[in-house]
């Protein structure tokens, strides 16, 4: 597959770079390759619970160096979208620090009195009182926003209700459908492209889900790459009326050997020795990219 025109990259996080907080094969090498080549990239996630700084620390614990400036969450995308719609507006939020921090930094005021927007994000502490407040505010005119449509999320004990499930409850009570900013809305990809100054024609999106990553990438005009290390498998591809530009077994296939290096039998490039003063973990983390 010819990727010679690709100069910028967007990638999902869970199922692509990490799985259950463990780095997937080839992920560290791919990130190192992008740093070495100074390629613009962003790591995307629909999770709005954590700040970019939190996620950067989580990835570091998995052995992956991703500065917080290279992480784009549905919370950041939502704050970016709302700031362009109504600069300096007011919001009532059901969510965690990732959402509230992003909105504060975008200049929004948090209030329970006649807010411009009600924003539903991910949380592990859904409150009946807060949901009731959201319903009443929407009924009296506040605009209804959700960070992402995911109905459930994973946990060690099984699935948990997520943003989409709570949004559905509020929709049932109000008759109002939220505007969803995160994947599969291509709005999230377009804001990510703007963030790194990239163009859709020269950007690839790597994801593990046909119903979010691939469809949103196609609608945003990106080169789409489905990796089979996460949710969607070969059988899933056949169920959809659209197809990714290419399918890979893992992100190691995107790592190309440096001069004088050969690929191993599995097709992944061997990890290059660190050059003196170049791209060490401590340098990457300290420089912020």
TrEMBL record:
Is Metal-binding set as a keyword in this record?
Answer: yes
Chain intervals for the UniProt region annotation (Disordered): 255-289
Name the GO cellular-component terms: cytoplasm
- Composition-biased stretches, type Low complexity, lie in 267-289
Q: Which cofactor does it need?
A: Mg(2+)
What residue spans carry the Basic and acidic residues bias annotation? 255-266
Q: Which residues belong to the signal peptide in this entry? A: none
Q: Which residues cross the membrane?
A: none
Return the Pfam families for the record. Hydrolase_6 (PF13344), Hydrolase_like (PF13242)
Q: Name one GO molecular function term.
A: phosphatase activity
- Keyword tags: Carbohydrate metabolism, Hydrolase, Magnesium, Metal-binding
Q: Does the keyword Zinc apply?
A: no
Recorded superkingdom? Bacteria
NCBIfam families found in the cross-reference section: HAD-SF-IIA (TIGR01460)
Name of this protein: HAD-IIA family hydrolase
What is the protein's species of origin?
Rothia santali
């Amino acid at each position: 597959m010819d990727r010679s025109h690709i100069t910028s990259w967007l990638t999902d996080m869970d199922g692509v770079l990490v799985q259950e907080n463990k780095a997937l094969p080839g992920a560290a090498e791919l990130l190192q390759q992008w740093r070495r080549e100074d390629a613009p990239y962003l790591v995307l996630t629909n999770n709005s619970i954590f700040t970019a700084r939190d996620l950067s620390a989580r990835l570091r614990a998995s052995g992956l160096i991703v500065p917080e400036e290279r992480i784009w969450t549905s919370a950041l995308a939502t704050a970016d979208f709302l700031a362009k719609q109504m600069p300096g507006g007011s919001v009532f939020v059901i969510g965690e620090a990732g959402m509230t921090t992003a909105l504060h930094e975008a200049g929004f005021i948090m209030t329970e009195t006649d807010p411009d927007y009600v924003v539903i994000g991910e949380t592990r502490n859904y409150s009946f009182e807060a949901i009731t407040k959201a319903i009443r505010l929407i009924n009296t005119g506040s605009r209804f926003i959700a960070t992402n449509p995911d109905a459930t999320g994973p946990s060690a004990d099984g699935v948990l209700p997520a943003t989409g499930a709570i949004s559905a409850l509020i929709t049932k009570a109000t008759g109002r459908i939220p505007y969803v900013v995160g994947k599969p809305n291509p709005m999230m990809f377009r804001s990510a492209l703007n963030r790194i100054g990239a163009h859709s024609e020269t950007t690839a999106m790597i994801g593990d889900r046909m119903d979010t990553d691939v469809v949103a990438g196609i609608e945003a005009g990106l080169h789409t790459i489905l990796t089979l290390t996460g949710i969607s498998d070969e059988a899933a591809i056949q169920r959809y009326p659209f197809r990714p530009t290419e399918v890979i077994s893992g992100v190691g296939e995107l790592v190309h050997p440096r001069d004088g290096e050969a690929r191993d039998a599995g097709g992944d490039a061997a990890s290059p020795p660190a050059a003196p003063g170049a791209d060490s973990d401590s340098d990457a983390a300290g420089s912020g990219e």
